[in-house]
Request: fold
Amino acid sequence: MAEVKYVFVTGGVASSLGKGIISSSLAKLLQSRGYNVTIQKLDPYINVDPGTLNPYEHGECYVTIDGAETDLDLGHYERFLNVHTTQANNVTTGRIYKTVIEKERRGDYLGKTVQVIPHITDEIKRSIKLVGKTGEYDIVITEIGGTVGDIESLPYIEAVRQMKWDEGLKNCMVIHLTLVPFLSASGEHKTKPTQHSVKTLLEAGIQPDVLVLRTEMELTQDVKEKVALFCNVDKGAVVQSVDVSSIYEVPVKMLEEGLDSTVLNRLQLDLKDDPPLLAWRDFLEKQAHPKSKVTIGLVGKYVELPDAYKSIAESFAHGGAANECQVDLQLIHSEEINPENVKSQLEHLDGITVAPGFGARGIEGKITAVKYARENNIPFFGICLGMQCAVIEFARNVLEFEKADSTEMDPKTPYPVIDLMEEQKSITYKGGTMRLGGYECNIRKNSKAFETYKRTEIIERHRHRYEFNNKYLDDFDKAGMYATGINPESDLVEIMELKDHKWFVGVQFHPEYSSTVVNPHPLFVNFIEACCTRENIL
Ligand code: GLN
Reply:
């Protein structure tokens, strides 16, 4: 078996420069050249996984098919590469320490003082190589979270330094992403922050092989040459990444800059054929030249931080392009919706989505939004908590179950139409204990769900503790709200639909986690199609 090649991506100067997008774009290009590539994210925080983090902290928690709660960058990896990631693709400092401490308690290090070097760094290296060892990949790209110089990321940087010697210099390389600001007062791009950032890496024993410079405006050849000279890298290995309007343009930009060929040369791998990126370019073309436009409201309570709904927003971008339709996704704060103002808040929308979420805050606004969509025949798409809100609304206003609720919001409700799953009742630990990851669902024919998926068996990803209470299934069915998707093993309701409505579908799962550029999720595609009428044509 050929040796696995490791590419590390570090960041300097500022956070949020888009290491995830650069890693994903490089991976996409290498994949298009015929290599099997995966991407891994190492996060320097002490939470074992981001499942316990409030979305205001780090944005959405992304869930993989094997049920890992992970950083939202894994969503980008899957959306770009169209391949699944797993728990092994996201490691945090918390997980590293937890493993090392468990080994220590088991007696694995008996007699030794357990230290950051070598024990923590060995565990980091083991986690990196675990992905490579599956035999599935030619190249593993590992993104190091944070910014070089942070105390938290030091052990990771040290592990990268050691990896270069363990795996051989031709099998490991480092790409460093920095910011080159433009000072309008002097009319110049400034390279000093990049020089300092590279110096910080050098102090840790790492000479970067490639520099990717984020910039608002094109850099001149002079600037690139100056960076090359001062930072001790090859001229051809200084790559600019200019701001673009869609993240999906970045692979094409990186191809123009030759990032993929620079990497392959450095790793002594064949260039193979130029990547055609046909499906990718087709997507970009459709995204840039829409034939219609719809306005969709996303009702949620984390609207101050759009990253909290990253995968939903991207799924709308994919589904929009598939329909050659520009989706204007408007985030609407659920706490600001009430029965008096709902019309003025929502009447301009072509479709309404109610977002996932936890806890009681903003729930009544979501339920009011569902009522408005149901009564006014506006296409409605409820995701996880959004589906649960649709069930509660129907119970209260159609079945006339007064004070019907989810026991998450009102544990004493007389009509617990959404209730805790039986296996959840004894769980007190919060980390990793929800119903997580891929579960099967059987779809009833003669439903919107069947029209959408065009098959009866699907697998979708989950992240919830509560579920539809099957005690009420008959009541809902008789009144016109049907369970059209059921888990074959547990009988849990996965999809609820209204019969006499243009498009009204609630799903207990998270379709947004599995939508990709070349494989947009059918529910988003179909929902956008339903939102688009003659008036929406441009
Ligand atoms: N809070 C709800 C539950 O736990 C919904 C979760 C979600 O929307 N992801 O079941």
Notes: The longest strand covers residues 292-300. Residues 201 and 207 are 7 Å apart (CA to CA). Residues 116-133 form the longest helix (18 residues). The chain has 18 helices and 23 strands.
